[in-house]
Amino acid sequence: MSEYEEAFVVLRRMEQNQLKSIEMQAEQLALVKAQMERTEVRVQESIALQKVAVAGLGGLGHMGVKFAAALGAHVTMITTSPEKAADARALGAHDVIISSDGEQMAAARSRFDFILDTIPVAHDVQPYLMLLRRAGRMVIVGAIEPLPSIHGGLLISNNRAIGGSGVGGVPETQEMLDFCAKHDLYPEVETIRMDQVNEAFERLLKNDVRYRFVIDMATMG
User: Fold this and answer.
1) Is the same domain home to 44 and 146?
2) Which DSSP symbol is given to 142?
3) Could you tell me the residue range of the domain that residue 203 belongs to?
C-alpha cells in the first residue's frame, strides 16, 4: 500500500470515528432532553395537585403567578392592593386575598402547600405562615433585610418551614429560560427613556409600575 493510500485509510478512519462521536453526542443529547421532559412532567403533575400562593404583586410576584399557573397549580395572589385583583387574575391567578382583610386571611388559614413571598421590604411573615397547611413551605425571595421575629410554634405545630432563595446557577437559569420559551412566559415591562428615571423612581415609591421599568439605553446621551 502506498503512502497516499495509507494516508487515505487513516483519514477515512478519523472521519468514521468523528461521525460515531457525533452520533453518540446526539444520542446523549436526546437522552438528556427526554429526561428533562420527564422531569418537567413529574414536576407539573406534582405542582398541579398543590395550592400555591404568591405574596406581593410586583416585578417578582407577577412572574411567580405566571410560573405557578403554567406549572398547573391552583394559584392565589395575596396583595395589600384591592385594585390589583383584576391584574392578578389576568396574569393567571385563580383567587385573590387582600392581606389587610382579617376575614379573608382567617378564611384562608391552613390552605396552601407553598407560598412564594416576593414582598421586597421587611414585613411580618407570621400571618402568611398561618396560611400554610401541614408540612407547607414558604420561600422568601424579595426581602433582603432583617425580618421581625417569628413565633416558633407556627413552625413546630404543623411541620411548616420557611426558607429563602436567590439566583440559581447556569443549569437552573437555562431550564427556566427553556420553560419560558415553551410556555410563552414573559415579564410585563414599561420601557422608559433615561430622562424619565427620576419620574420612574417616584412612581416606584408609589407602587405605580406594571411591573418592571426598563431603561432604553439608546436614549443615553
Assistant:
1) no
2) S
3) 189-219
